[in-house]
Amino acid sequence: MPLALSTPAQAAVPAPPVRTTPDAAPAPEPGTAPVSRPVAPAAPAAAPAVAAETAPIGVAVSRLAVTTEDRTGYDRDKFRHWNTGLDPADGCNTRAEVLIAEAVEAPAIGPRCALTGGSWWSYYDEQTITSAGTLDIDHMVPLAEAWDSGASAWTAARREAYANDQGQASSLVAVTARSNRSKSDQDPAEWLPPAESALCRYVSEWTATKLRWDLTVDENEQDRLFLLAAGCTGTTVTWETAP
């Protein structure tokens, strides 16, 4: 809803700041050493916040660097998941935290983060799911594809951060196990969600994840992304660079 504009009242002119000087230290008595006053350390500067970026989908795709992919040395175990999640004290790992966050109807959370009840919408195939155990948490850009696209050069800690990324909603998504396993480690040149309604969202989230983690694309992948983006007029991509 557009914000109503109001004419601000005339601001009062602030008084000039009063400069003060610290009290002088008292002169030491004869025969005594001067007393030194401790100086408080300066507060550390706060790290600047990373602002999210938004661009039309075609523009966002054009910002992806194109390289040849290489899967040499890939091993799924090099991406540690699922770890203790955002709150190590809640007893829920990343998988469970994503399920809780993405539930359409909230599940009951039992001991050791056992989830019962609740419902989820798998947008890949337009399915409503009422059992958490039948859902997979899909890495929007699969681990093997991430390895091909730049993650092979990362530290183990960064690969773990990627595999458990809850800092951007598009990175991890709860979907039916059938659709996730059909996708496997394929990119959009090789696999797309079966539901036509999912295509623009999927391409947007794929692109956002690659931009967030500074991952590359190969030529076939880029060609397919541009082709799909052309049919997604009005779709935007929003991402925030991973820390």
Automatic annotation (TrEMBL):
- Which residues lie in Pro residues bias regions? 14-31
What residue spans carry the region label Disordered?
1-39
What parts of the sequence cross the membrane?
A: none
InterPro entries recorded = GmrSD_C
- Any one Gene Ontology molecular-function term assigned to this protein's record: endonuclease activity
Report domain GmrSD restriction endonucleases C-terminal positions. Answer: 125-226
Keywords, A to Z, come to: Endonuclease, Hydrolase, Nuclease
Name of a matching Pfam family? GmrSD_C
Q: What name does this protein carry?
A: HNH endonuclease
